[in-house]
């Protein structure tokens, strides 16, 4: 066993200290949001809540039930996130697999066109006019399919598919499988680490997306949670009608923190189940000889 030099020991200590500070800076805002949401509102206003909840209670979470359209918009966000992510994965994976195959004529041209859209886009106004001309304004379908493709993710998928063993595809063809069945039954299972990563990224993009939903959706029954949060927190609307039990200014602070906690909870809950796929290695040993 090699003995560490003094320089390496100092470097390791410095790394531990630096990464510990990064962890604290990253996680403390989330932690503070949670402890503030379960603390007495007056204590949050006075700045007494720093490391631990003060006068802990769940009044703010109980008040969320009285916010109009909150759970309806929460359901909309779940709908857009699930079906939007499913649509994105279906379209992008098939497109990426197609342009990853060398036998496809014009694959270089198609790849260049896809890459071009990543750097040069039409802009907001042409995109808005395009959605309007297609009849996708104030439409759930427009939110799901209008943002289903990302050139960056297609390039990542294409690169991954290019790294899969060609021998597997050739063997499947000898067994009589069609191109679609090869893609569905062989390539997709081998691409689980990549698909899991892209799924998480797409789901986060969908869950946090609010700008185009705010522009395209006019019906309050169709807006996602993030648009409603903007109205609640940024525009400070819809909270004035809520009975704060005689302590409006204080309880409003904890109510905002409670809303944020509920908004980010699904992504935090899903991540531990997805991150185990991040380590690549599904194809090691798939082809021998």
Explain how this protein is built:
With 289 residues, the chain is an all-alpha fold. It is 69% helix and 0% strand. The protein contains 14 helices and no strands. Helix 4 packs across helix 8 and helix 13 runs antiparallel to helix 14. It is globular and about 70 Å long.
Shape: globular
Low confidence ranges: 280-289
Q: How large is the count of helical segments?
A: 14
The topology string of helices and strands comes to HHHHHHHHHHHHHH
Distance between the termini: 35 Å
Radius of gyration: 25 Å
Instruction: Summarize model confidence as the mean pLDDT.
Output: 81
Sketch the major β-sheet. none
User: Could you tell me the strand content as a percent range?
Assistant: under 5%
Query: Roughly what percent helix?
Result: 55-70%
Structural class: mainly alpha
Total DSSP E strands: 0
SSE blueprint:
Elements lengths: L5 H32 L3 H6 L12 H6 L5 H31 L6 H13 L4 H10 L6 H6 L5 H13 L2 H9 L4 H12 L1 H17 L2 H6 L8 H10 L13 H27 L15
Helix pairs in contact: 1-14, 4-8, 4-11, 4-13, 5-8, 9-10, 13-14
Quick tags:
mainly alpha; 289 residues; single chain; globular
Summarize the structure.
The protein is mostly helical.
């Amino acid at each position: 066993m090699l003995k560490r030099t003094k320089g390496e020991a100092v470097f390791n200590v410095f790394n531990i200290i630096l990464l510990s500070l990064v962890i604290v800076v990253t996680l403390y805002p989330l932690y503070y949001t949670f402890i503030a949401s379960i603390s007495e509102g007056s204590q949050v206003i006075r700045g007494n809540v720093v490391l631990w909840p003060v006068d802990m209670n769940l009044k703010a979470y109980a008040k969320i039930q009285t916010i109009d359209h909150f759970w309806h918009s929460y359901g909309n966000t779940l709908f857009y996130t699930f079906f939007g992510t499913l649509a994105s994965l279906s379209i992008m994976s098939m497109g990426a697999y197609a342009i990853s195959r060398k036998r496809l004529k014009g694959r270089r041209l198609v790849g260049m066109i896809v890459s071009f859209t990543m750097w040069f886009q039409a802009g907001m106004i042409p995109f808005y006019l395009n959605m309007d001309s297609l009849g996708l304004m104030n439409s759930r379908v427009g939110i799901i399919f209008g943002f289903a493709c990302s050139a960056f993710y297609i390039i990542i998928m294409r690169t991954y598919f290019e790294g899969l063993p060609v021998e597997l595809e050739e063997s499947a063809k000898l067994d009589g499988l069609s191109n679609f069945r090869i893609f569905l039954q062989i390539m997709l299972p081998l691409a689980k680490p990549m698909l899991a990563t892209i799924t998480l990224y797409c789901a986060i993009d969908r869950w946090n997306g609010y700008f185009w939903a705010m522009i395209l959706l006019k019906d309050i029954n169709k807006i996602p949670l993030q648009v409603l949060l903007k109205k609640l927190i940024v525009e400070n609307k819809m909270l004035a009608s809520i009975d704060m039990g005689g302590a409006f200014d204080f309880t409003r602070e904890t109510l905002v923190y409670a809303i944020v906690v509920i908004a980010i909870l699904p992504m935090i809950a899903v991540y531990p189940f997805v991150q185990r796929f991040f380590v690549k290695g599904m194809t090691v040993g798939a082809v021998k000889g």
